[in-house]
C-alpha cells in the first residue's frame, strides 16, 4: 500500500468533489486531499502552488476541460501523477487520455468501494517510472 | 356558326380544316398549317396509299363524327400517322387531324417521364437521408450527454448513501440509507439500459474483449445486488467452479448479469430465492439465473427479448422497468457469438441462461 500521498481533486461537481475527498480521507495509509479545483484553469494554478503527488482530473468541466488542462498541469507540477476521471467508460475515452499524457483513467462509478483500489493499481503499475 | 368559327380557328393544338366534298380545303386553321403546310386540297397531304380511305370518309361524312387512320405528309416531307375525323356541316365537312404517336414513340415518352420522376425521387431520398443522418447524430449526442449528466448526481447519491450506511447509525437510519442506495442503483441501471439500447440501435456497439473470469464477474454482480436482495428478503446462492475464463467484454457481461439478477430479485416475491449456476459446456460457459418469482406467461416468451416489451405479470404488479434490459442483454450475448434464453412458468419462476463462448485471443 502506498502511504501518505497528497492528492489534488479537480471536478466541476461540488458533490462529487466532496465525495471523492471523503473517500480519500478515509484511506488508512494517510492519503490526504491537499487542494481542490472546479475547472481546468483553476487546477493549473492550484497544482503549481500545492505540488501534489497525485492529481485526480475530471474531463468535462467548464472554462477549461481536463484534456486541455492536462499538459499545462503536467508542466506546473511535473512530479505529479495525473489520473483522468470521467463519466464515460474506459473503452470510449481512455486511450485518448493516455495518448495525451495521463498516467491513468478512471470511470466515475462505484467510487466508495473502488476508487482507492483502482488508484493503488495505477500507482503500482509496472509501466510507471519510479522517482 | 360552326366550331370552326370559334375556338378551332385559333387553336394551336388541334389541326382543323373546313373541306368541300371534293377535297378542296376551304379554310384551314393555324395548327393545320403548322403541322402540314399550306395546301389547296386534302388529297395533296394524304399519303397516296391512304387516299381512298380519306376520300370515303369525306364522301360519307354525316351528322356524327367518324374517323379513319391515315398518314399525312408534313411540311418537312415526313409522314405523320394521324387519326382523321370528319363531321358534316352546312359549309362543308369539318375535318380534324390528330397526330398519333407510334408505339415506340409512346414508350419512349413514357420512359422519359418515368426517368425524370425517378431522378426527382432520388434527389428527394438523398435529401431525406441526409436529414435522417443529421437527426441520428443529434440523437446520439443528446443521449450521450444526457446520460452523462444524469449519472453525475446519481454517482454522488450512491456514494453518499454508501458512506452513510457505514456511519454509526440506528438500524432504522441504516435501512433508510440502504433504500436510497437501492433506488439510486435502479435508476443508474435504467440509464445504462437507455445508453446501451441507443448504442445498439445506432450500431455503435463495440466489444472490448479481454480474458475475464466469469465466476469473478458473477461474484461482483452478486455483491452489487445484495442491498436490493436484502430489501426484498430474497436469498441468493451460487454454484459452480471457482473460476471460468472467457474472452469477453467484461463491462457488457457485468451489465447483463446485473440485469438478470436485478430482474430475478425484482420479480421475486418476498422470501423468494435466486440461484446462480456457472458451468462449462464444451467450448462455452453457461450462467443460469433461476428465480422463484412471478414468471412469464408462455404466450409472451417470444416477445420477451423485444425492445420495450414488459411482461403482463410485471405490469400487473406495477413493477417499474424500461423493457430494454433483456433486449440489450441478448444483443450483447449474440455479439459475442453466444445466446440468452429463458424458461419460465407463471407463479413458479424463471430461469435465464446466458451462454458465452470461451473463445481465444485469436478468435
From TrEMBL, chain A:
Listed InterPro entries: Bact_response_regulator, CheY-like_superfamily, Sig_transdc_resp-reg_receiver
A biological process term (GO) from this entry: phosphorelay signal transduction system
Sites of 4-aspartylphosphate modification: 58
UniProt keyword Phosphoprotein present: yes
Full protein name: Two-component system, chemotaxis family, response regulator CheB/two-component system, NarL family, nitrate/nitrite response regulator NarL
Cleaved signal peptide residues: none
Xref: SMART domains: REC (SM00448)
Ranges for domain Response regulatory: 6-123
Keywords: Phosphoprotein
Record-linked SUPFAM superfamilies: CheY-like
TrEMBL record, chain B:
PROSITE patterns: HIS_KIN
Keyword list, A-Z: Coiled coil, Kinase, Phosphoprotein, Transferase, Two-component regulatory system
Cellular compartments annotated: Cell membrane
Entry-linked SMART domains: HATPase_c, HisKA
Keyword DNA damage: no
SUPFAM superfamilies: ATPase domain of HSP90 chaperone/DNA topoisomerase II/histidine kinase, Homodimeric domain of signal transducing histidine kinase, PYP-like sensor domain (PAS domain)
Gene3D superfamilies (UniProt xref): 1.10.287.130, Histidine kinase-like ATPase, C-terminal domain (3.30.565.10)
GO annotations of cellular component type: plasma membrane
Catalysed reactions listed for this entry: ATP + protein L-histidine = ADP + protein N-phospho-L-histidine
Coiled coil residues, start to end: 111-138
Protein name: histidine kinase
Amino acid at each position: 500500500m502506498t502511504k501518505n500521498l497528497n492528492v489534488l481533486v479537480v471536478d466541476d461537481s461540488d458533490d462529487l468533489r466532496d465525495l471523492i475527498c471523503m473517500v480519500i480521507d478515509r484511506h488508512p495509509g494517510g492519503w490526504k486531499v491537499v487542494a481542490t479545483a472546479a475547472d481546468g484553469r483553476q487546477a493549473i494554478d492550484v497544482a503549481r502552488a500545492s505540488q501534489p503527488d497525485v492529481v485526480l482530473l475530471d474531463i468535462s468541466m467548464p472554462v477549461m476541460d481536463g484534456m486541455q488542462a492536462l499538459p499545462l498541469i503536467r508542466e506546473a507540477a511535473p512530479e505529479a501523477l495525473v489520473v483522468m476521471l470521467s463519466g464515460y467508460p474506459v473503452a470510449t475515452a481512455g486511450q485518448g487520455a493516455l495518448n495525451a499524457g495521463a498516467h491513468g483513467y478512471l470511470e466515475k462509478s462505484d467510487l466508495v468501494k473502488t476508487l482507492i483500489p483502482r488508484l493503488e493499481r495505477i500507482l503500482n503499475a509496472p509501466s510507471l517510472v519510479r522517482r | 356558326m360552326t366550331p370552326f368559327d370559334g375556338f378551332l380557328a385559333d387553336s394551336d393544338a388541334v389541326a382543323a380544316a373546313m373541306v368541300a366534298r371534293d377535297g378542296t380545303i376551304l379554310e384551314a386553321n393555324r395548327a393545320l398549317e403548322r403541322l402540314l403546310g399550306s395546301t389547296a386540297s386534302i388529297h395533296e397531304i394524304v399519303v397516296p396509299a391512304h387516299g381512298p380511305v380519306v376520300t370515303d370518309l369525306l364522301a360519307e361524312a354525316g351528322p356524327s363524327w367518324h374517323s379513319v387512320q391515315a398518314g399525312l405528309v408534313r411540311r418537312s416531307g415526313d409522314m405523320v400517322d394521324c387519326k382523321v375525323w370528319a363531321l358534316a356541316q352546312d359549309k362543308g365537312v369539318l375535318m380534324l387531324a390528330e397526330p398519333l404517336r407510334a408505339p415506340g414513340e409512346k414508350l419512349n415518352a413514357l420512359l422519359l417521364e418515368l426517368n425524370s420522376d425517378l431522378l426527382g425521387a432520388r434527389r428527394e431520398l438523398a435529401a431525406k437521408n441526409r436529414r435522417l443522418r443529421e437527426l441520428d447524430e443529434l440523437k446520439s449526442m443528446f443521449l450521450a450527454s444526457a446520460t452523462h449528466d444524469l449519472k453525475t448526481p446519481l454517482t454522488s447519491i450512491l456514494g453518499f448513501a454508501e458512506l452513510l450506511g457505514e456511519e454509526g447509525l440506528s438500524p432504522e437510519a441504516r435501512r433508510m440509507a440502504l433504500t436510497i442506495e437501492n433506488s439510486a442503483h435502479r435508476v443508474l441501471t435504467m440509464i445504462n439500459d437507455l445508453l446501451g439500447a441507443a448504442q445498439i440501435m445506432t450500431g455503435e456497439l463495440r466489444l472490448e474483449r479481454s480474458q475475464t473470469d466469469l465466476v469473478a464477474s458473477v461474484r461482483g454482480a452478486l455483491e452489487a445486488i445484495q442491498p436490493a436482495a436484502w430489501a426484498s428478503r430474497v436469498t441468493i446462492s451460487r454454484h459452480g467452479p471457482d473460476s471460468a475464463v472467457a474472452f469477453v467484454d467484461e463491462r457488457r457481461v457485468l451489465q447483463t448479469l446485473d440485469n438478470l439478477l436485478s430482474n430475478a430479485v425484482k420479480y421475486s416475491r418476498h422470501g423468494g430465492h435466486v440461484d446462480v449456476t456457472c458451468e462449462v459446456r464444451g467450448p462455452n460457459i453457461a450462467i443460469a439465473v433461476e428465480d422463484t418469482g412471478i414468471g412469464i406467461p408462455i404466450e409472451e416468451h417470444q416477445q420477451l427479448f423485444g425492445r420495450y416489451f414488459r411482461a403482463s405479470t410485471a405490469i400487473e404488479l406495477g413493477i417499474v422497468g424500461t423493457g430494454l434490459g433483456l433486449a440489450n442483454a441478448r444483443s450483447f450475448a449474440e455479439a459475442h457469438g453466444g445466446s440468452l434464453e429463458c424458461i419460465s412458468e407463471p407463479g413458479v419462476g424463471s430461469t435465464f441462461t446466458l451462454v458465452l463462448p470461451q473463445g481465444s485471443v485469436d478468435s
